[in-house]
Amino acid sequence: MTTAEDTLEAVAARIRTHVVDMCAGPEGGHLGGALSCVEVLSALYFSVLRVDPRQPGHPDRDRFLLSKGHAALALYATLAERGFFPVGELAGYGRPGSRLMGHPVRAVPGVELPTGSLGHGLALSCGFALANRYAGRDSRSFVLLGDGELQEGSVWEAAIAAASLRLDRLVAVVDRNGLQLTGPAERIAPMEPLAERWRSFGWAVREVDGHDAIRLADHLAAAPWEPGRPSVLIARTVKGHGLSFLAGRTDSHYVTLSPRNHARALAALAATDAAR
C-alpha cells in the first residue's frame, strides 16, 4: 500500500517506466493499452484491493481479472511493485524460460486465471462473485475490460447475468481509450452513449478520468454504489499515455522500442515526473 511519501502517482510513474523498459526488449509488447490502464491498476493494487502478496491464494482476498490480457505488461509491473514477485524479474519478460508471457498465466503470483481471449473476463468474474456469495464471504471481484472488447457478445450476456443475479460485489472497469488494433473503436462498432448502455443492462454506472489515480481509487473503494446492482466504472483514458510521440495513436498498440525510442520514452516519462 502507499504511504505519504509514496503516492499513487509515484507508483504509477514506476509502473509506466517498467512497461516502457519491457517494450524495449527483443519481443516488444502491447505498449499503448498497457500505458492506458496504469493508473487503474495502481489505484486497485495500492489503495483498493484486499490482497496479501505473501498469501496470494488467501480465500478471503478480493479477486482481480485482467480481461484485456494483452495489457499484461502493466499487470506484471504492478504485481512486482506490490511485492508479489521481485521487480528484477521484469527484465526477463518474454525471454525463454520466463513465466512473464505476452498474456497472463497462473504461474505468475497474483494472476487468478489466464486471460487474453477477449470477451470472457466479465463472465469469469461473475463466477468469482457468485462463489463468494455462496461461501458467505464479503470479498469483491474486479475486472478490467478494454473498450474494443465490448464488441464481444459474451460481454453483454455476462452483463445481463450479473444484473439479474444482483451481484453487487462485482465491479467492472472499462478502459475507454477509444482505440483498438484496427482503428478508432467508435468507427468500428459505435458504443456511445456507453454509460446509458450499461445502465440499460441494470448496472450502476460512473465515469472518471482514467489517469487520475486518486479519483479512481475513491470510486472503486466506494463500490457497490447501489445495493443489488453490479458497478461499472468507465475510465476515459489515452492509449500510450505518457509518451507524447505515441499517445493517442493506433500504432502504439504493439511496439518494440528501438534504443533511440527507448531513451526518448524514458526522457518523456522523466519530464512528466519532474513536472508533477
From TrEMBL:
InterPro entries: THDP-binding, Transketolase_CS, Transketolase_N. Keywords: Metal-binding, Thiamine pyrophosphate, Transferase. Its cofactor is thiamine diphosphate. Signal peptide: none annotated. Pfam families: Transketolase_N. Residues 11-258 form the Transketolase N-terminal domain. One of its GO terms (molecular function) is magnesium ion binding. PANTHER family: TRANSKETOLASE, TRANSKETOLASE N-TERMINAL SECTION-RELATED. This is Transketolase.
